[in-house]
C-alpha cells in the first residue's frame, strides 16, 4: 500500500490493483470565508505507535513571512482502519515540506525560516529548533529530512543558487539536548550533491540517498548526482518497496495553479535492477503530488 500526500487530500493506493482510496480530504481546518488548510505535505511512519503521521499546511494567524502558510498540523492515521485524528497544532512553521519521526520526535522542515523544529510527541511541544544559518528566512529552502543510521539528514535545495546539499548530524545530540536552539551548520557534516539543483527528497537506498531533481524531472543518486531515471514531469516524492521504487510527479503549472483539483498527478513504478519505468498510474484531481510512503 502506498500512502500519498497531495494538495487536495491524503490518498491510499493499492500498488497491485491501483485502487485509490481517499483517507483525508482538505477540509480539516475550515475558515469563515475560505478554508485555512492548504494541503498535505510531509508524511512518515511512527514505528512506536505503528501509525502514519501527516503534516498539513495551515494559516492560523501567525505573522506571515514571505510564504503562503504560517503553521502546521500533525494528523495521525491508522494504516489498517484509515481512521485519523489531529494530534498537534504547531504555530510558526512556515510552508512545511517533508517530515520524519524517530523515537517519538517529529522533525519538521520549516522552509520559510530555514530550520528544523523538533516536536516531542510525548511532551506535546517543540523541544528544540535546529537553525541553519543565522537568518530566519528562506535561504537554503530546507525541504527534505530523514532519520537514517542514527543520524538526522537534512536536504538543502539551495533555491538553485548553488548545488543542493545534505546536512547530517547525530540524532543522539538532538534528542538529549537541553538547548532551545542549535546552530547546526556549525557542527554538522555537509556534502554537496554534484551538479544537482532544486532537489527534493532523501530516501535511503543501498549506500546513498535517492533524490528528485524536480525541475529536470529526474530521479538521481546523492553521491554522484547521476540521473538514474528520467521521469519527465515535475518529480517529488520517493518510496521504496521490496521489489520496486515508486516516484510521484505532478503536471507543470504556475505556482498559483499547481494545487488545483483540475490537475491530475502521477505515480511511476520503477524497476530496482535497471531503473526502467514499468508503469505510470494516473492519480485524478490530486493537484500537486508532495510525498509518499510504502507500507506492507
Give a structural overview.
The mean pLDDT is 93. The protein has one helix spanning 171-175, and strands at 2-6, 9-13, 20-25, 37-46, 51-58, 71-77, 84-91, 96-102, 105-110, 115-120, 125-131, 142-148, 151-156, 165-170, 181-183, 189-192, 199-205, 208-213, 218-221, 227-230, 234-240, 244-250, 265-271, 277-283, 289-294. Strands 8-9-10-11-15 form a five-stranded mixed beta sheet, with no helix packed on it. It has one helix and 25 strands. It is 2% helix and 53% strand. It is an all-beta fold and 296 residues long. The protein has one domain (2-244, 255-294): Neuraminidase (6 Propeller), CATH 2.120.10.30.
* SS summary, helix count: 1
| Overall geometric form | globular
Our count of domains comes out at 1
Provide the β-strand percentage band. over 45%
- List the quaternary state of the chains: single chain
Helix content: under 10%
Distance between the termini: 6 Å
- What is the CATH homology-level superfamily? TolB, C-terminal domain
CATH fold label? Neuraminidase
Q: Got a strand count?
A: 25
Largest sheet: 5 strands, mixed
Strand order within the widest beta sheet: 8-9-10-11-15
Category by helix and strand content: mainly beta
What order do the SSEs take from the amino end to the carboxyl end, as H and E? EEEEEEEEEEEEEEHEEEEEEEEEEE
User: Which CATH class?
Assistant: Mainly Beta
The CATH architecture term is 6 Propeller
Overall average residue pLDDT: 93
Unreliable parts: none
CA-atom Rg in angstroms: 18 Å
Amino acid at each position: 500500500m502506498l500512502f500519498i500526500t497531495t494538495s487536495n487530500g491524503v490518498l491510499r493506493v493499492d500498488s497491485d490493483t491501483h485502487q485509490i482510496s481517499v483517507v483525508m480530504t482538505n477540509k480539516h481546518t475550515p475558515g469563515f470565508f475560505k478554508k485555512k488548510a492548504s494541503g498535505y505535505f510531509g508524511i512518515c511512519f511512527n514505528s512506536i505507535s505503528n501509525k502514519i503521521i501527516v503534516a498539513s499546511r495551515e494559516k492560523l494567524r501567525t505573522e506571515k513571512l514571505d510564504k503562503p502558510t504560517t503553521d502546521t498540523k500533525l494528523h495521525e492515521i491508522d494504516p489498517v482502519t484509515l481512521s485519523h485524528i489531529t494530534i498537534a497544532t504547531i504555530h510558526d512553521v512556515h510552508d512545511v515540506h517533508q517530515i520524519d519521526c524517530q523515537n517519538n520526535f517529529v522533525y519538521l522542515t520549516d522552509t520559510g525560516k530555514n530550520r528544523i523544529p523538533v516536536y516531542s510527541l510525548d511532551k506535546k511541544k517543540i523541544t528544540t529548533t535546529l537553525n541553519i544559518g543565522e537568518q530566519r528566512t528562506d535561504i537554503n529552502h530546507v525541504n527534505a529530512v530523514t532519520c537514517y543510521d542514527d543520524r538526522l539528514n537534512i536536504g538543502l535545495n539551495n533555491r538553485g543558487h548553488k548545488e543542493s546539499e545534505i546536512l547530517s548530524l547525530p540524532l543522539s545530540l538532538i534528542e538529549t539536548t537541553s538547548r532551545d536552539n542549535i546552530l547546526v551548520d556549525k557542527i554538522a557534516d555537509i556534502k554537496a550533491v554534484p551538479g544537482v539543483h532544486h532537489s527534493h527528497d532523501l530516501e535511503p537506498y543501498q549506500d546513498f540517498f535517492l533524490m528528485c531533481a524536480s525541475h529536470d524531472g529526474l530521479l538521481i543518486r546523492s553521491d554522484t548526482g547521476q540521473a538514474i531515471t528520467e521521469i519527465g514531469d515535475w518529480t517529488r516524492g520517493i518510496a521504496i518497496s521490496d521489489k520496486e521504487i515508486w516516484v510521484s510527479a505532478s503536471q507543470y503549472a504556475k505556482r498559483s495553479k499547481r494545487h488545483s483539483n483540475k490537475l491530475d498527478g502521477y505515480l511511476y513504478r520503477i524497476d530496482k535492477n535497471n531503473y526502467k519505468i514499468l508503469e505510470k498510474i494516473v492519480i485524478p484531481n490530486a493537484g500537486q503530488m508532495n510525498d509518499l510512503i510504502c507500507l506492507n
